[in-house]
Amino acid sequence: MIATALTRLFELEHPIVLAPMGGVSGGRLAAAVSNAGGLGLVGGGYGDRAWLNRELDLVSQLTSRPWGVGLITWSCDRSIVDLVLAQRPHAVMLSFGDPRPHAAVIKAAGYRLICQVQDLAGARLAREAGADLIVAQGTEAGGHGGTCATLPLVPAVVDAVNLIPVLAAGGIADGRGLAAALALGAQGVLIGTRFYASDEALGSPRAKQSIVEGSADGTQRTTVFDIVRSLDWPAGTTGRALRNPFMARWHGHERKLAAVLDTESAAFQAAVRAEDFDTAMVWAGEGVDLIDAVAPAGTLVKRISEETEQCIARATGLCQQPTRE
Ligand SMILES: Cc1cc2nc3c(=O)[nH]c(=O)nc-3n(C[C@H](O)[C@H](O)[C@H](O)COP(=O)(O)O)c2cc1C
Description:
With about 325 residues, the protein is an alpha/beta fold.
């Protein structure tokens, strides 16, 4: 069993957190991860009240273990934070944007605060906001994120935030990634794409299958899926998705896309409803090369944890006593 500041904070069996993937990490998936000994976070996304009420009811019915909720900071208002806190989660995660206004509300109500950051400036803001845990998210991650790679970002954030426990995110899909994160000074990992390809994840079986079949070099960061949905993400934030014909057509031609939203938006929304992934996006990270099947989330948690222990044992075996002359 691997014990870290993360496992101690929430009394977990494994230092594994489910990423709050909007529209994917519903109550069933979060509960499955929590029941397996990790920490499941429901993906609050852009703050759809009916969706949140349904999925938060579900997670609290399906698990008695700790669970939490993730919100996209810039897109949610105080009423969404209040709705989430009313369900008494064990943790709230804020990503993308200045966490301090919502953080104050969450901390004052006595809840654990997790902040996901993409660079050192974000890490310092998270520390100022009183984060109990900071997720250092590398550019390899699926979904929205920044430009710094996981490998140098994680130890830099560990150094910058002093004693606040740090989790690594971005491109981690098996025990080798978790072992590497621990070696970098992280206290655990936050995993998204690997859990998208799980039985309990919400979303289309075809999207899950495209993750199984996808390759890291077939993913790309882009803003075209945000432009076509008229989502006003902060400058510099892009989303990593599987490359598809819609992305191939519009990436690099963002201004032209913005000029034809009247027709393109409606066609895009129709494609989302029809699960037409030549147009609609499948957010996915560079860890897709490590994913070869859709699997139950609890099996994944246990498998990743066992692999991690094996990796650590193997790495420890590399250390030799100095030989005496
Ligand atoms: C399908 C998908 C949806 C995501 N949605 C969100 C979201 O709504 N809010 C958020 O903070 N992060 C979101 N993320 C990013 C995750 O929080 C996390 O940083 C990322 O999944 C970690 O990298 P990985 O996908 O390589 O494991 C999403 C990621 C994916 C793959």
